[in-house]
Amino acid sequence: MSRIVCVTGATSGFGKAIAEKFLAEGSRVITTGRRKDRLEKDQKLWEEKYGANKVFSIVMDVQDQQDVEKGFSSLPEEWQAIDVLVNNAGLALGRDSFDQANLQDWETMWQTNVMGLVYVTRAVLPHIIKRKGHIINIGSIAGKEVYPEGNMYCASKHAVDALSKSMRIDLLQHGVKVTAIHPGAAETEFSLVRYKGDASKAAPVYAGYQPLSAEDIADITYFAASLPPHVCINDLVVTPTAQANSVLVHKNA
Ligand code: NDP
Ligand code: 8X3
What we know:
Helix content: 40-55%
Shape: globular
CATH architecture of the domain at 66-75 and 83-238: 3-Layer(aba) Sandwich
Mean pLDDT: 98
Number of strands: 7
Distance between the termini: 41 Å
Bound molecules: NADPH dihydro-nicotinamide-adenine-dinucleotide phosphate, 2-hydroxyethylsulfonic acid
CATH topology of the domain at 66-75 and 83-238: Rossmann fold
């Protein structure tokens, strides 16, 4: 299907897999992230694989509203008819008790996961409204159930859940679809980022069971974006089969 799809946080994990899935299915994709080298490398690779002018990449930090506005205002005319926005950029930093967690980490999570999503959505919304398009927010199972030492990450993803419901109500008049996808444990760079590069803490998160992959989330995102115009998946929680909720994972079965 030939559409223009904008994916935030496309330099890694879900975002990268989602961008490639839409490209493979015939879309043109706007990729964003802070790491210019990765955006450029993938753009080159994907244009060789899927054709010239299929990718437009924008380096931006979603925490910075001016950066976001500047990034989207640089879009050439032929890239402005955005049909699908996938708000995926996000992170967890630390896993610490409420009384000990680093406040700077909390500010970064809130500013990225909540305000970043808002800045991007507001910047892209005029295009989405014109197209009667689709906004897909990547939440988390952490936005459905709070877990120990999840504090601000869980709060930020609960906010994504609430904002998704709010967008669905307020954008109803414009015929815009809003879907929230809430994954459980998926093996990406997520835990390496959360534990600040400490692989000895990140690897055990995914040991002893089969976690979700980035490609699983890409397939689900593509499915949600490919239903007939009158059908909208509002809210979708997906976990590995070995995970029952945000605290219970059956390991070494
Ligand atoms: P990754 O760490 O692999 O990817 C995160 C992406 O977000 C990167 O492309 C990164 O790009 C981007 N990003 C982070 N901060 C910023 C920023 N300030 N500005 C712009 N881009 C940013 O993790 P995942 O793919 O796993 O995570 C993607 C989303 O899925 C996140 O919202 C996460 O909370 C959510 N999620 C993850 C789960 C998991 O278990 N993996 C489960 C449930 C939800 P760059 O660093 O280049 O800026
Ligand atoms: C990522 C999944 O369970 O680490 O959102 O919060 S979890």
